[in-house]
Design brief:
Layout lengths: L11 H14 L3 H18 L6 H15 L9 H10 L1
Helix pairs in contact: 1-2
Protein backbone atom coordinates (compact mmCIF):
# COMPACT_ATOMS: atom_id res chain seq x y z
CA UNK A 1 0.00 0.00 0.00
CA UNK A 2 1.34 3.40 -0.92
CA UNK A 3 1.19 6.25 1.54
CA UNK A 4 1.25 9.99 1.09
CA UNK A 5 2.66 12.11 3.88
CA UNK A 6 1.64 15.74 4.27
CA UNK A 7 2.62 18.41 6.74
CA UNK A 8 -0.41 20.06 8.36
CA UNK A 9 -0.19 23.13 10.58
CA UNK A 10 -2.63 23.58 13.48
CA UNK A 11 -2.95 26.37 15.98
CA UNK A 12 -1.73 25.27 19.42
CA UNK A 13 -5.26 25.46 20.82
CA UNK A 14 -6.81 23.36 18.02
CA UNK A 15 -3.99 20.83 18.23
CA UNK A 16 -4.53 20.46 21.99
CA UNK A 17 -8.26 19.91 21.50
CA UNK A 18 -7.73 17.35 18.75
CA UNK A 19 -5.01 15.53 20.64
CA UNK A 20 -7.25 15.37 23.73
CA UNK A 21 -10.10 13.92 21.66
CA UNK A 22 -7.79 11.29 20.16
CA UNK A 23 -6.62 10.31 23.65
CA UNK A 24 -10.24 9.99 24.80
CA UNK A 25 -10.87 7.61 21.92
CA UNK A 26 -7.70 5.67 22.71
CA UNK A 27 -6.08 6.27 19.33
CA UNK A 28 -3.11 8.22 18.08
CA UNK A 29 -3.44 11.78 16.82
CA UNK A 30 -2.65 10.81 13.18
CA UNK A 31 -5.19 7.98 13.31
CA UNK A 32 -7.82 10.39 14.63
CA UNK A 33 -7.15 12.80 11.75
CA UNK A 34 -7.40 9.91 9.25
CA UNK A 35 -10.73 8.83 10.77
CA UNK A 36 -12.07 12.38 10.47
CA UNK A 37 -11.05 12.54 6.81
CA UNK A 38 -12.56 9.13 6.02
CA UNK A 39 -15.77 10.03 7.83
CA UNK A 40 -16.10 13.24 5.82
CA UNK A 41 -15.47 11.56 2.47
CA UNK A 42 -17.74 8.60 3.28
CA UNK A 43 -20.71 10.97 3.70
CA UNK A 44 -20.23 12.28 0.17
CA UNK A 45 -19.55 8.88 -1.38
CA UNK A 46 -22.61 7.27 0.22
CA UNK A 47 -24.81 9.83 -1.51
CA UNK A 48 -23.56 8.83 -4.98
CA UNK A 49 -26.02 6.38 -6.56
CA UNK A 50 -24.41 3.14 -7.71
CA UNK A 51 -26.97 2.56 -10.46
CA UNK A 52 -29.39 4.81 -12.30
CA UNK A 53 -33.10 4.94 -11.43
CA UNK A 54 -34.19 2.66 -14.29
CA UNK A 55 -31.67 -0.04 -13.34
CA UNK A 56 -32.74 0.21 -9.70
CA UNK A 57 -36.38 -0.18 -10.79
CA UNK A 58 -35.51 -3.28 -12.85
CA UNK A 59 -33.60 -4.79 -9.93
CA UNK A 60 -36.63 -4.19 -7.70
CA UNK A 61 -38.92 -5.91 -10.22
CA UNK A 62 -36.53 -8.85 -10.49
CA UNK A 63 -36.32 -9.26 -6.72
CA UNK A 64 -40.11 -9.14 -6.46
CA UNK A 65 -40.44 -11.80 -9.19
CA UNK A 66 -37.91 -13.98 -7.37
CA UNK A 67 -39.85 -13.58 -4.11
CA UNK A 68 -43.06 -14.62 -5.92
CA UNK A 69 -41.38 -17.67 -7.50
CA UNK A 70 -41.63 -16.21 -11.01
CA UNK A 71 -38.22 -17.18 -12.32
CA UNK A 72 -36.57 -19.82 -14.47
CA UNK A 73 -33.68 -21.81 -13.05
CA UNK A 74 -31.03 -22.18 -15.78
CA UNK A 75 -27.90 -24.13 -14.87
CA UNK A 76 -26.13 -24.87 -18.14
CA UNK A 77 -25.51 -23.17 -21.47
CA UNK A 78 -27.69 -25.77 -23.15
CA UNK A 79 -30.60 -24.89 -20.85
CA UNK A 80 -29.96 -21.21 -21.64
CA UNK A 81 -30.04 -21.89 -25.40
CA UNK A 82 -33.31 -23.81 -25.07
CA UNK A 83 -34.83 -21.05 -22.95
CA UNK A 84 -33.75 -18.26 -25.29
CA UNK A 85 -35.21 -20.09 -28.31
CA UNK A 86 -38.52 -20.44 -26.48
CA UNK A 87 -39.07 -16.73 -25.82
Amino acid sequence: MQRVQKLITFSPHLYTLLESKAEQLGISFPEYIRLLAVSDVRKEVEEIPIVDEETERQIGKSLQALKEGKYTDIRTEEELDVYLKSI
